[in-house]
Amino acid sequence: MIISAGFTITKAKMMKLTRGEAIDFHADHQAKPYYNDLLEFLTSGPIIALEILGDDAIHRWKNVLGPANSSVARTEAPDSIRAKFGTDGIRNVAHGPDSFASAARELELFFPSSGGRGPANTAKYTNCTCCIIKPHAIKDGLTGKIIKSILDGGFEISALQMVTLCFLPSFDFSSEGMGT
């Protein structure tokens, strides 16, 4: 649904939030009656953070998500992500920032520009292997189908991260290449 809505996913990372990270993430909801339930839910298992790019991304993403309460979304926006996959106002599948400032703050939390690591990943490192989804499959919008087929095959995905590999031409360290 993300790709078909005209967005590009440029970063992705599976992680497990600590209570402190969940508090930082949803500081704006602190006065809400459901705040503690929200924190408990956000820290109950892994989450996947995505950087989604597209024209007017914040507004358009909110439309793709639908109303925050999934029950309301099923009535008001039946084709939305929350209507199709959510269960209520807390377990509403996905989040979307309400402003550019919120988006910048949230992206910095999950994908720090300072070179920091952000929240810990969820990798188990035992009895596991590595899967790399190659660029053509990502460009063709096949990532979700590939992940679904891995899960349908009985595998568990314990960690996920999207990275961009850069090709750098090799440097000639021979004496001629060094200018000596």
Automatic annotation (TrEMBL):
GO molecular-function term, one example from the UniProt record: nucleoside diphosphate kinase activity
Domain of life: Eukaryota
InterPro entries according to UniProt: NDK-like_dom, NDK-like_dom_sf, Nucleoside_diP_kinase
Domain Nucleoside diphosphate kinase-like residues, every copy: 1-118
Name of the protein in question: Nucleoside diphosphate kinase-like domain-containing protein
Database matches in Pfam families: NDK (PF00334)
Swiss-Prot/TrEMBL GO biological process terms: CTP biosynthetic process; GTP biosynthetic process; UTP biosynthetic process
Protein species of origin: Phrynocephalus forsythii
Matches recorded under SMART domains: NDK (SM00562)
Keywords (A to Z) from UniProt: Cell projection, Cytoplasm, Hydrolase
Compartments reported by the entry: Cell projection, Cilium; Cytoplasm
PANTHER family assigned to the protein according to its UniProt record, in alphabetical order: NUCLEOSIDE DIPHOSPHATE KINASE 7
GO CC term (a single one): axonemal microtubule
Family, as annotated: Belongs to the NDK family.
